[in-house]
Amino acid sequence: MSTYEVSIQVETEYLEEQSMPEKEQFVFSYTITIANVGDSAVKLLNRKWKITDANGNTTEVVGEGVVGKKPHIQPGKSFTYTSGTVLKTPLGHMEGSYGMVDDDGQFWDLPIPVFTLAQPNILH
């Protein structure tokens, strides 16, 4: 039987040059690295995101792949991509899951832990 282990690393950035605080538009990018540390290849099929701003407003995003791709990640390899989101507040968070499948046709959800989106110096 094959085993799969996948780790997720997230880095976020506030994009000041694209943001317009006076219009409640705070733009963030996030770079995610999906590393396959198991012994079977895996493929990312879809994504589900829950994006919440500091006012508690939540947006759900569901779609195929990530950035137009459905990466097939071999054991010992990783896939990195950058995407973005816009909040109405300078602070918020995201969480979600990736729909995955292994080469044996086993489907599973890979949880994406909560990560913070924050304008610099907003948190002490």
From TrEMBL:
<dbReference type="InterPro" id="IPR007474">
    <property type="entry name" value="ApaG_domain"/>
</dbReference>
<dbReference type="InterPro" id="IPR023065">
    <property type="entry name" value="Uncharacterised_ApaG"/>
</dbReference>
<dbReference type="InterPro" id="IPR036767">
    <property type="entry name" value="ApaG_sf"/>
</dbReference>
<feature type="domain" description="ApaG">
    <location>
        <begin position="1"/>
        <end position="124"/>
    </location>
</feature>
<dbReference type="GO" id="GO:0070987">
    <property type="term" value="P:error-free translesion synthesis"/>
</dbReference>
<protein>
    <recommendedName>
        <fullName>Protein ApaG</fullName>
    </recommendedName>
</protein>
<dbReference type="Pfam" id="PF04379">
    <property type="entry name" value="DUF525"/>
</dbReference>
